[in-house]
Amino acid sequence: MATSLKIDDGLKSRIRQLASQRRRSAHWIMLEAIEQYVQREEARESFKQEALASWAIYQETGLHLTGQEVRAWLSTWGTEDEKMIPECHK
To answer: Which residues pair with 64 in a beta bridge?
Structure first.
């Protein structure tokens, strides 16, 4: 899919300068920027959808862990006494 972008002169100059410094083409710099942006936004949307789903489950069931319970569990990670995730409760 061929796409054209309208880029102002200031940004074009910055892209060219960065491309020169990185020994890459301006095209490569722009593709890399777009790829990173899309990945970041997809991850953000996935996180949002997971949070909304978790909230819906909590509203239906009331099951949860407190912040203190989660912190206590996480503090065992990487130790010889690493614990399993605690059971959710009402």
So the answer is: 89
**CB contact at 8 A, 38 and 61:** no
Return the closest-CA partner of residue 21 out of 13, 31, 10: 13
Contact status, residue 64 vs residue 89, Cβ threshold 8 Å: yes
CB atoms within 10 A of CB 54: 11
Cα distance between residue 49 and residue 55, in whole Å: 10
Segment 30-89, tens digit of pLDDT: 999 999 999 999 999 999 999 999 999 999 999 999 999 999 999 999 999 999 999 999
Which H or E element spans position 67?
Answer: helix 67-74
Each domain of the chain, given as residue ranges in start order, spans: 9-62
pLDDT at 2 over 90: no
